[in-house]
Input
Amino acid sequence: MGKNYVCFHRETDTSLVAENIDELFELHHKAVKFLEDYTGIMEPFGDFEFTIIPAFQYSGMEHPGNIYYRDSKLFLPKGATESDIMSRASLIAHETAHLWFGDLVTMRWFSDVWMKEVFANYFAAMIVNPNYPNVNHDLLFMLKHQPLSYGIDRTAGANPIQQPLDNLNFAGTLYGNIIYYKAPIVFKMLHQTAGDSIFKESIRKYLQKYSYGNADWDELIAVFEAHNLPNVGNWSNAWVKEPGMPKVSYLVTDTAIIITNKNSVPNTRLKQQQLEIVLSYKSKVEFKTVTLDKNRLAVPLNSKEKPEYILLNGSGYEYGYFPADSVSKHYFLTNFSLIQSDLQRGIVLLNQYEDFINKQIKKDDYSKFLHQVIKNETSVHLLDVAVNQLKTVCNQFNQPGKVDTAT
Ligand SMILES: [Zn+2]
Output
C-alpha cells in the first residue's frame, strides 16, 4: 500500500504555495525512497506528515511522524538562487534522514547527540549532491570543515569529538567546532576505511539491531568491527576519543616518497588515514591512494622524473598538517595559478596557511603569495578563502607587540 504524504501550513499567498508545493512533496518522497533502499528499512512512522510554521525557531525539527519546518526555508520565492534551492533540498533530506538516524535509533545519552547530526548531514549529501553535478562538492566540504576544525585542533586546548557528559545542564558545552566540523570528516573516513559495501551493510545491521531503541558511538563501531573491520576500534579511539591533528610530512628520494606521520598531542594513539597522493609532473598528473597506518611509510615512485609538486592530501578529505617539501613549496608560491584543479588549489591554500601558522613561511612571503592569488583566482570560493587569510595575516600578525585581548 502506498504512503500518504501530508503537508500542513498556514501560508496565505496561494501563488507561493502553488509554485512550491509539488516540489516539496517530490523532495520528501525522493529522500524517503533513497533511505528505504539504502537502509533496507521502510520509513518507520506511517504516513509522512510535515508542518510548515511561520518563523519556526529552527530550520527543521525531526519529530517522528511530523517534521516541522520554518516557512521561509521551504516556500522559496520566484528567482531563488541555486544555493537556496540546494539548501532546501539538503534540509528536507537531513530531516527525513533523522527518521532513521535519531528517531528510529536514538543516541543513548547526550554525549553522542552529534552522531545523529553527522548521520543526517552525511545522508543528505548522498541524496542531494548527485542532483547538482556542476557544484564542486569535495571542495565545498573541505572549505567548510577543515579550517574551522584545524582552528581548534592545532591548539593546546583541543578537545576530542566524544566527551563525557555527567550533567545534562552542561550539554551545550559539548557543542563547538570539533563536533560540527571534525566529526563529519571522521565519519567520511569511516566510510573510506570500510568501503561502500561494508559501510552500507554495517549501517543496515546497526539500524536493525537498535530499531526503536538506543545506541552509542561504540555500539556503532562494534557493528563495523563485526563486519570484517577488526581494527576499526583502534581507529575510532584515535580519532574520536583523542584530540589533535597529525603532522604528515614527506621527503622525496630517487625511488620513493618517504611519509612520516606524527601526532600533535603527546601520548595519543597514531592517527591512521587514507591518503590520495597527487604527483604532478610536467606532462601528466598521477594519483596514488595509500593507507597511512604506521608512523613511516615508503611509497614507490613509478617515474624517474621528479614531480613538480606533491600533495599528500589530494582528495580534500584527509585531515592534518601537511607541510610541503621545499620543491613543492616553491612551486606553490610561484606557480599557484597554473594548478588546473580548483580542489587542488584549495588544498594548497589550506596547507600553505598551516605552514604559515607554524612559522614555516615568512609573513611577507605569505602576504605576497596571497596578493598574487587574489589577483588571478577564478574560483569565487577560493577568492573568499584567500581574502579571509589575508585579513588574518594583516590583523593578527602584522602588528608587532600587539597583545591579543580577545576573550
Ligand atoms: Zn538535525
